[in-house]
Protein: Alpha/beta fold hydrolase
Organism: Halomonas citrativorans
Amino acid sequence: MSIVGYHICFIQGDWLIPTVWDKFQRHFKACGYACSVLSLPAPGEQGWYRVLHGKDVRSSSLGRLVDFYAKQVAAFPVPPILIGHAMGGLIVQLLLDRGLGVAGIAIAPRPPQCVFPGIRSLLQILTARAERLEGMRFLRMTPAQFSRRVGHPASRQTTDPLYEKFVGRVPQILMTTVALGVGSRLLFDQERGPLLLISGGDDRMVASSVVLANYCYQRQSLAPTDYISFPGYGHLLITQLGWERVADRIIEWLQQQLGWF
């Protein structure tokens, strides 16, 4: 058993593959937390296909993805801490809404149904290159798009290696569903675990104003709800230069909410 006693589940977001959590996972393990990354049943396009082509035609693609993660989270003997980035941050909130997870941290989260995602977010979907693989249409950013939107404020020289290391394809139907708010309705006034929302002040993918609007809705809950913005940070808060500051602030917040045992 870890010295902290809590298990942390990192949830994959959009565009980036699960290994983007490697730094966070090592850091949290060093602080005594047991950690795991909840990823798809198979790498890449095949994994997306298995999850999103379920038999329940009444469910949205986002709903199927949340169902997939919900089964994994519910299987833990003790409710884990949920940490998600981008779409993973939205999924954390949807899982908390279902009564899953002891606490949640949503980093640069995609917005729920009631929050407008912003023009930039919509343009990301419209301008991404589409490819048909595994019987589905996938979107993939170019290195230049990644540098401008995800890697900012780092230089192109810094972001190009990150593009090769972390960027994957994402289903077009899933990104469109999230942008339109389908399947992302939250019940803000019901009981849930503590929630921390985090934004990067220079994020060009999910603007800090969008995360702040998300927080204003989440404050309707009686559960502890906090918001932190990191000036000068972009969308890649979990791996860009200075990521340790973000990780340590999360650990401090968790200790305040859950304590050590």
Summary: Strands lie at 7-11, 34-38, 81-85, 103-107, 129-133, 136-140, 170-171, 195-200, 225-230. Residues 7-258 form a domain with the Rossmann fold fold (CATH 3.40.50.1820).
